[in-house]
Design brief:
This protein is an all-beta fold and 66 residues long. It has one domain (9-65). The chain is 0% helix and 35% strand. It has no helices and six strands.
């Protein structure tokens, strides 16, 4: 039996400014096929677009890079 390794890549982005919200548009060396946000409430993957791309003061977001 062979062994298979499944590699999943995640990125954590944190707004270290404790007074202002910031727009978050991460850049990668090679563009990912898909960028999904892990919901802090449900743990489910969701869209990372629109209003979700704004990080409140001190907020972080965990992204799954596909």
């Amino acid at each position: 039996m062979g062994s298979h390794v499944l590699l999943e890549v995640y990125a954590m982005i944190v707004n270290t400014d404790f007074t202002k919200s910031h727009y978050c548009q991460p850049e990668f060396r090679s563009a990912p096929k898909q960028l999904r946000m892990v919901s802090p409430y449900t743990g489910q993957l969701g869209e990372f677009s629109g209003e979700e791309m704004w990080l409140a003061a001190g907020q972080g977001v965990l992204l799954k890079v596909q």
